[in-house]
């Protein structure tokens, strides 16, 4: 898929807002189905929300040194995934099958985005 580089920030923002919504509202509401402690879901949701606002600001402002910001976003997304995997392992006895499925799918999608963002930022 070949979209303008600027739109990658919008894609990232949309995904982060979706993650924040899912983590902060839906997974907390149906916590017994997923198993991750509510306070962890709250922290992950806040992190996703901060990343969403950063990406949205980059999309709206589109700084002249945008590749640096895109690499930064890719790095932060990668760190977020590492933290999520660490939390999955730490709370493995509490996570349900649905919880494992949700977090694995979220990490796979984010890591695909990281790869895409890194590739686009390196090409500039």
Topology (SSEs and partners):
Elements: H1 5-29, H2 31-34, H3 38-61, H4 66-90, H5 97-123
Helix pairs in contact: 1-3, 1-5, 3-4, 4-5
Q: What does this entry look like structurally?
A:
With 124 residues, the protein is mostly helical. The protein has one domain (5-123). The chain has helices at 5-29, 31-34, 38-61, 66-90, 97-123. The model has no long low-confidence stretch (mean pLDDT 95).
The major pleated sheet works out as: none
Count of helical regions: 5
Low-confidence parts:
none
Strand tally: 0
> What is the helix fraction of residues, given as a range?
over 70%
Return Rg in Å.
Answer: 15 Å
Termini separation comes to 17 Å
Annotation keywords:
about 120 residues, mainly alpha, about 0% strand
Question: What's the gist of this structure?
Answer:
This protein has one domain. It has 124 residues and is an all-alpha fold.
